[in-house]
Amino acid sequence: MVLSLSSHNVIQYLQDAGLCSLEDGASDISELPGSSNNNFDLLVTLADNQKLLLKQKRNINNDAPPHELFKEWLFHQLLQQFPVLSNISAMPTAVNYAPLVVHFDEENSILVRNYLSEYLELAIFYHNNEIFPQQIAFAIGTTLAGLHRATFNRREYKDFMATAPQGEFRYGFYNPAQGVGSIGPEIFGTVPTDALKFYVLYQQYESLESAIADLAYDWNPCCLTHNDLKLNNILVHSRWEKLDNCLVQLIDWEACSWGDPAFDLGTLLASYLGIWLKSLVVDPTIELEESLHLALTPLEILQPSIIALIRAYINAFPMILEYRTDFILRVIQFAGLALIHQIQDIITNHKSFNNVNICMLQVAKSLLIMPEQAVLTIFGISQSEILNPVAKIHKLSQPVKEQQLLRIYYEKTRLRGC
Question: Where are the domains of the chain?
Fold first, then answer.
């Protein structure tokens, strides 16, 4: 029988696991926002003021524990096995990749890690302060590039990440370049009526499905990737202005695997774009172009940080431009795909779909099918201007123009677990 963690049994659990003594006790136990039947988080403050975060994934339809936390534990084991990964960086703004995991209970799918009291989620920081310091974006770009660069085409890391939970086999790595799956009659009982418009609009754009199919076809896993790098999975130190090191922490590695680096950067870019798109002033009488310019958080405010992010990444990992001459365009396309995933999450978790989400879909479509034009819109400068400072430092070779080939698709392209 799988243990169901709660505020009533958590101290006993910590004592049985040897993580606190009978004398320690707890001065505070609080359930964190976002907890649900399937995802439960508890923050425990012990008598010595040590704070522990307990995460449990539950499978309410099966007695067997789920394995979502296994990959987060596996990532921490990777850092233990290869300690050089914990300190890699090309710049003095080095950061850690994750807080220390102190316990993993595979049988009950419970993971315990130290809680970083001096940090807060970057999404909350941006929302509360309404500022977007380039210094923070620079630190994130440098850190992400450091991880990708250090594991790039390294067999020992790839083999380690291929480890499967006990009693299971892993035949390959998941390709996250997925669009909206096949839609059947059962959808009418799972999404609100307003949200059906999203699926109608999505199905109308065959060019959109083709662009996503291209991404899936060209997906080339070559390094360790986070795969869920949103702003709420990045922590920023409360005294970031006064620190040279450890400005940010990347957390929640439950989806990490061997993957495509452009996917990580694109997902993060979409998270920044989400700040802009969710602040749109939308009205049926206003054209999309005008609505985008009337956003309460204009894209122009975000662009300096977005540019700092991408330049820091390329500066720390210039080799990626030789490996993928179309890297920037793929980042743009993955950002469009991530926006579609954001809309799906809104429909699934909040049971809503409104005019703002329609605008998000339109922007996502543009990023996916016209990435060359989207570069100037999103960054405010051309691709050559983005790369120019980096090229001067690293003397990057000129990209070789790819041969233009005509892709052939079925009349209606569907992605089915690529």
Answer: 118-394
Average pLDDT over residues 186-202: 79
The per-residue pLDDT for range 275-286, each reduced to its tens digit, is 999 998 887 778
pLDDT of 408 strictly over 60: no
Contacts of 282 (CB under 8 A, 6+ apart): 291, 354, 355, 356, 359
| Token pair recorded at residue 312 | 């820091």
In angstroms, the Cα distances linking 1 to 4, 16, 37, 107, 218 are 9, 17, 17, 9, 43
Token pair of 357, please? 């989400």
Whole-angstrom Cα distance, residue 332 to residue 318? 18
Q: Does domain 118-394 have CATH number 3.40.50.200?
A: no
The identity of residue 341, as a single letter, is H
Which contacts (CB < 8 Å, 24+ apart) does range 169-175 have?
173/221, 173/257, 173/258, 173/259, 174/257, 175/216, 175/219, 175/418
Q: Tokens 């980096």 belong to which residue?
A: 390
SS3 for the chain, per residue? Answer: CCCCCCCCCHHHHHHHCCCCCCCCCEEEEEECCCCCCCEEEEEEEECCCCEEEEEEECCCCCCCCCCCCHHHHHHHHHHHHCHHHHHCCCCCCCCECCCCEEEEECCCCEEEEECCCCEEEHHHHHHHHCCCCHHHHHHHHHHHHHHHHHHCCCHHHHHHHCCCCCCCCCCCCCCCCCCCCCCCHHHHHCCCHHHHHHHHHHHHCHHHHHHHHHHHHHCCCCEEECCCCCHHHEEEECCHHHCCCCCEEECCCCCCEEECHHHHHHHHHHHHHHHHHCCCCCCCCCCHHHHHHCCCCCHHHHHHHHHHHHHHHHHHCCHHHHHCCCHHHHHHHHHHHHHHHHHHHHHHHHCCCCHHHHHHHHHHHHHHHCHHHHHHHHHCCCHHHHHHHHHHHHCCCCCCCCCCCCCCCCCCCCCCCC
Kindly report the backbone phi and psi dihedral angles of residue 113, in degrees, each rounded to the nearest multiple of 5, phi listed first: -140, 160
CA dihedral sign of residues 394, 397, 398, 403:
negative
Can you give the pLDDT at residue 98? 65
**pTM over 0.90, yes/no:** no
